[in-house]
Amino acid sequence: MPRSAVIAVTNPYTPFGTFAGLTFWPGGLTLIGAMPGIGKTSWLIRIVREAAQSGFQAALGCYEHTDEELQYRANLQAEAVVGGAHGLVDPERAAHEAARSSEMVLLALTQDITVRALEQKLIKQYQFPEHEPALIAVDYLSLVPVLGIGGMVTVKERTGAATEELREMAKRHRWAVVAAAALEENDRFLGDERVGYRADRTLIIYRKEEATRDCGCIRLVVKVDKDRTAHIREYELDFWGERFYPALPDEFARHGNHHD
Description:
By secondary structure, this protein is an alpha/beta fold. It has one domain (23-254): P-loop containing nucleotide triphosphate hydrolases (Rossmann fold), CATH 3.40.50.300. 28% of the residues lie in helices and 25% in strands. It contains 6 helices and 13 strands. The protein has helices at residues 40-53, 67-83, 91-99, 115-124, 155-173, 194-198, and strands at residues 17-19, 22-24, 29-34, 58-62, 105-108, 135-139, 147-148, 151-152, 176-182, 201-207, 218-227, 234-240, 245-247. The chain has a 9-stranded mixed beta sheet with strand order 5-4-6-9-3-10-11-12-13. A two-stranded antiparallel ribbon has the order 1-2. The chain has a two-stranded antiparallel ribbon with strand order 7-8. Strand 7 and strand 8 (151-152) form a beta hairpin. Helix 1 (40-53) crosses helix 2 (67-83) and helix 2 (67-83) packs across helix 3. It is globular, with a radius of gyration of 19 Å.
């Protein structure tokens, strides 16, 4: 008679933290896709902020904004935590909230910083762990420089190659990597099939409302288009434009209210 046995195998998708509503696991690559101006960068900043607050090494490498712009948004997000979308803010409490994520790294990257160069910068200059969980955000995919034999490759080829490089970086160091990506008009990721295929999880953000509300906020729908660790689902975010803050459903009631 054949004998069977249960062989214990460690779950490779065991999460190490949940930040800004998303659960992350070592070695995973998450892509967040949306049309321009819908809040991708702000969501990445919130993810990095909360990872740093939880004691993890966390960094955002951004090819689109300056250091000052990234820090400005991060400071406004601290105000949102204290005062909601539009409420009054106690400067001392906001400063305390901002200080909680002071260990995060916000990097404005130039077009000579490849994925490999970013990886080395984080390890050598910022002492990121070589084989332990950390959170790395990249903004955004089609701006990541990829060098080919004849020089810089085209945008569509670049996004596929950059996706592969980011996933390999995640696996190599057991880091969780999340990257913003541009969408084409048909809601497909800009680039070749490697973009969606190589990612472990893809999320697409849509506007729920056609127009921005008078206060500058807008309701968004997040569609989890692919997830190796969980079921496919949809949920909403409320983007508080005045403070660059993507609010989760359990925070919607705080729109415009001071947090006591």
